[in-house]
Amino acid sequence: MSSDKTRGGLKSQFRRNLLLGMAALPALSLLPRGALAQATSAVNTTNLAVTDSTVKVGILHSTTGTMAISETGSVEAEKLAIKQINDMGGVLGRKIEVIQEDGASDWPTFAEKSRKLLVEDKVAAVFGCWTSASRKAVLPVFEQYNGMLYYPTFYEGLEQSKNVIYTGQEATQQILAGLDWVSKEKGAKSFFLIGSDYIWPRTSNKIARKHIEKNGQKVVGEEYFPLGHTQFNSVINKIKLTKPDVIYASVVGGSNVAFYKQLKAAGINLSKQTLMTISVTEDEMLGIGGENIAGAYACMKYFQSLDNPNNKAFVEAFKAMWGADSVIGDVTQAAYLGPWLWKATVEKAGSFDVDKIAAASDGIEFKGAPEGYVRIHPNHHLWSKTRVGRARMDGQFDVVFETADLIEPDPFPKGYQ
Amino acid sequence: MKISVRNSAPRRATGELMGVALLALLILIVLPLGLDGFRLNMVGKYLTYAFVALGLVLCWGSAGILSLGQGIFFGLGGYCMAMFLKLEASSPEATKIQSTPGIPDFMDWNQLTELPWFWEPFHSLPFTLLAVVAVPSLLAFIVGLAMFKRRVGGVYFAIITQAFAAILTILIVGQQGYTGGINGITDLRTLNGWDIRTDGAKQVLYFVNAALLIGAVLLCLFVRHSKLGRILVALRDKEDRVRFSGYDVANFKIFVFCFAAALSAVGGAMFTLQVGFMSPSFVGIVPSIEMVIYCAVGGRLSLLGAVYGTLLVNWAKTLLSESFPELWLFAMGALFIGVVMVFPNGLAGLYQQYVAPRLARLFPRAVPRVGEVIPPPTAAE
Amino acid sequence: MFEGYTLAELGSIFAMQGFAGLILFSVFVLMALGLAIIFGQMGVINMAHGEFMILGAYVTYLCSTLVSEYLPALFPVYFFIAMALAFVASGLLGMLVEWGMIRFLYKRPLDTLLATWGLSLILQQIYRSVFGAREVGVVLPDWLMGSVAVTDTIEVPINGLFVMGLTMIITLVIYTVMFRSRWGMGVRAVMQNRVMAGAVGINTERVDRLTFGLGCGIAGVAGSAFTMVGSTGPTSGQLYIVDTFLVVVFGGAQSLIGTIASAFTISQAQSTMEFFLSGSTAKVLTLLTVVAILMLRPQGLFVLKVRR
Fold first, then answer.
1. In terms of residue numbers, what domain contains C217?
2. Is A64 within 8 Å of B322 when comparing Cβ atoms?
3. What are the extents of the domains in chain A?
4. Superfamily of structural domain A171-300+389-402
5. Of B301, B293, B300, the residue nearest B336 (C-alpha)
6. Which residues are CB-contacts of A220 (< 8 A; sequence separation ≥ 6)?
7. pLDDT-based confidence at B7, cuts 50/70/90?
8. Nearest CA to CA, how far is C123 from chain B (Å)?
9. Chain C contact for A291, CB < 8 A?
């Protein structure tokens, strides 16, 4: 597999191994006492692809099509985590083997491939999906064939399944803390919501609007544009007309690039006009260009520039494996959590069986997470902190705020529906 | 391409029926025996696209009307079916955690508190089955009436249908409270209480689908051999002469366009049943053009060829994207170019040219002919 | 929505909105001109038009990286070099495609559609393999970003002005080439009656190749200019294709004036509606209106009267 070669190519094998080992150190604490290989018949009662020395898992992302842009990072992070786990001796003494399938940015293909992974390959777990639509397409398949999916993207919530662990944030986790921060810090009274026209921005903005109105502030505009839209001059005029304190943006994909370039060209200076986005990670910054978005605030749970030992080791290991130019966004980090959380759960349950994993997931911790400590909530989402970062010219964020405590995931928020 | 039609009509009909019988043998017996449940379900999905390809053979191959919007009709048929299934899956008991139980989950998320009026009739299965065919046909009729009566054809028609596909996608994605938005209508479970997700149900659905497809092929053959079919070919080649002979050309075009739409819609409905969801990604421009290539690979003039073409392209797509994801787009692109430049009559053309003569020498009596090939004149004016 | 604003404020908003419409108009014209030549004059449906545009965008990206690396002094003006190179690159590729593919298909317009669609898939995958699946950011010289303050309240984006100027120049050039030069006369002659044109000594094959190359080259320039307002990724080209075709068809395929008139109508309609309605709704309404008008007047706004 080509994944084992460094793209940077400069670092020696020894150094790389050392780095990978270092990155894995924090996770050592997760090793259960005496995790020696148990009999396969005992840890696998449901006929999964587990042998005495290996266990098969699936990676299901789009490597072709429009979503490949976003999903590449997740694939890389998952492969990194799996390699580190294997270097430490695998899961229950078994090396992880990866079967990678391409969802091709096409939802039925996702459903088809997930069925293949579960029915033909009998993988013990699948790390994958990115868009809500792809997750919605595979969810019935995972429920029907009782598979286990680790889903990395921050998403709109309103979902909970025995067969899915959501390693990204659901909407209220991501949104509320950021809104509170911007109200307090910037004294914001009025907001302009703008997003791409599909479920995640609409649901997120619905939650944002309720919260804004609860706080006695005002939404002065709410606009949606078709995916791939590239002309924002009219809405920028509307923004100029309504003079909001905060532009709250959830524009995605290619539209993002157009939106920020045109904002800048229209003379909206992001160091004066507060803009908060929930959709721009370091990945998107590459396309937008730091000079077009510098000064904007992003609200999510992870930034590459986070200053903690876990993250340093993670970033270094990631660059060692995938090249010094790689950037790591929120979702990439969440994807990295998947294999580790699965490993910890399998070892707690002492079994690869999906039912036992689903039951054992509650309370699983991962102290080695680059974002800091995370823990699985009974509703299969993660407790996590939310942070606000300020975009820099070089495509990174300065972390300007982080919540003091872990925020409880609440996929069906009362009062926000 | 010089293929003269020597045989007498009854002989040709027998040959075509034998071709249909062979196809039936393949999809009703050989494939189910040779494939496991998972692969069979995939073939079932491909076969739903074959309905679209059949419609295109009549529309494009016979009558010369290229629609780049067949995904619209496939999607509408699929959505009609999905609406029924979704309502059944959203019984008040199953959705009691919602703030308004008894409506589909995505409506609840979008603050709808009651079922929109146009969803109401889809509680009824007979109405749904009717709507699957009627809604797309009606739309095709309106579009056809507006276009063909004004003698819009050829390239213009292709581009306008393409615009329709774009419009419908934006509409479906934008009106997510009513349509499920970009996620589509997902998590469909039962049809009149019968669980469509089990392996057994999938097998039954496969056979229903295959049987319907055979039926559709026969129906298309019938249309083609009728006087109507011959007029279609005539108006493709010399529209003015047909018009001067006193026929109202537009009516024939409208009919064949509606017919193709209805076929696509049946495919869409079967797709929803077998795959378990419907989403706007089957409505847009890209799937619509892909469906044209299924037809072109099979041979735009051959009904049976269209079915084989659909199977072949999709099988290649799955195979390539499993083993060499990067190569897939290259292969698909090369296929488009190759089918146009090198073998414009597709698989059926190759069969006619190379296989059929040899078979005829080997078995002079019983040679199935894959469709009746009357290629359009290469030089238009 | 206008309570609480002074008349002056409203005035300047409308001025800027009018300007936004003009920018959209220029973008449409730029997109459609190349296609209008290829489709309108030659009758070839080039579904890969968007990919030719993106080729221009990638050329610009390469230029910006190379220039900022090796010739930082030239950076402020690299954009002009990039546009010229984009024209050449897309134009050459266009001529190659014409030679290898299109010339066999002049009599089968619907088949050019399929073949060029295949070409667009191949080009997309090539871009993906060469430049990566991620979007690339094209760094622009500072003077192109930002805005000019006309009055205290009216601000006009410079890149918008640039696109407008560029559109005007290209339109003028094309007009001169097609309607005032001997070569243009040749092109029009070939399109109206190929056999006759050949008989009077016009090298029709050469004319075809150059015309196709010209159309593609303009697409390349458009793509280069769009790096200022949009994104550059392997599949970005597909975003433009429907709009572009509608503009050309709506204008009446064989008339360049028609293309410009239709770009004006569509852009003004869209930008006005975007201001008063939400973005998605505006888009759907615009497309529906265009299609509705096309149904009533299928030949488009302007028709070239030719006896056949």
1. 10-296
2. no
3. 2-168+307-383, 171-300+389-402
4. Response regulator (3.40.50.2300)
5. B293
6. A190, A191, A192, A242, A243, A244
7. very low
8. 9
9. yes
pLDDT digits over A42-74, tens only? 888 888 999 999 999 999 998 877 777 778 899
What single-letter DSSP state applies at residue B376?
P
Strand spans (E) along chain C: 147-149, 155-157
- Residue A99 sits at φ, ψ, to 5 deg, of -110, 115
Interchain CB contact of B342 with C (< 8 Å) = no
Per-residue pLDDT tens over the stretch B331-379 = 888 888 988 888 888 888 888 888 878 877 777 655 444 444 555 554 3
CA nearest to C47, candidates C223, C244, C207:
C244
Tell which B residues from 156 to 175 touch C, by Cβ distance under 8 Å. 156, 158-160, 162-164, 166-167, 170-171, 173-174
Cβ separation of C295 and B146 shorter than 8 Å? Answer: yes
- Of the candidates B282, B237, B302, the one whose C-alpha atom is nearest the C-alpha of residue B79 is B282
Residue C211 lies in a domain: yes
Query: Has residue C39 been placed in a domain?
Result: yes
Percent helix, percent strand, percent coil in chain A, to nearest 5: 45, 20, 40
Give the model's pLDDT for residue B266.
96
CA nearest to B297 within chain C: C114
Select, from the ranges B267-271, B329-333, C43-47, C71-75, the one with the highest average predicted confidence (pLDDT).
B267-271
Residue C229 contacts A, CB cutoff 8 Å: yes
The verdict on residue C201 lying in a domain is: yes
Chain B residues with CB under 8 Å of A110 CB are none
**Which architecture, in CATH terms, is A2-168+307-383?**
3-Layer(aba) Sandwich (3.40)
Residue C206 forms part of a structural domain: yes
Q: Is B278 helix (H, G, I), strand (E, B) or coil?
A: strand
Residues A330 and A168: beta-carbon distance below 8 Å: yes
For residues A143 and A139, give the distance between their C-alpha atoms in angstroms, rounded to a whole number: 6
Contacts 24+ apart (CB under 8 A), A207-211: A207/A171, A207/A172, A207/A175, A207/A176, A207/A413, A207/A416, A208/A175, A208/A179, A208/A248, A210/A415, A210/A416, A211/A175, A211/A176, A211/A179, A211/A416
> What distance in Å separates residue A207's CA from the closest CA in chain B?
11
Same fold, A2-168+307-383 and A171-300+389-402: yes
Classify A5 as helix, strand or coil: coil
C163/chain A closest Cα distance in angstroms: 12
How confident is the model at residue A350, as a pLDDT?
A: 92
Å between B33 CA and nearest CA of chain A: 17
What's the distance, CA C184 to chain centroid?
20
**Are the C-beta atoms of residues A214 and A175 closer than 8 Å to each other?**
no
Give every CB contact of residue B30 below 8 A, 6+ residues apart in sequence: none
CB-CB under 8 Å, A199 with B183: yes
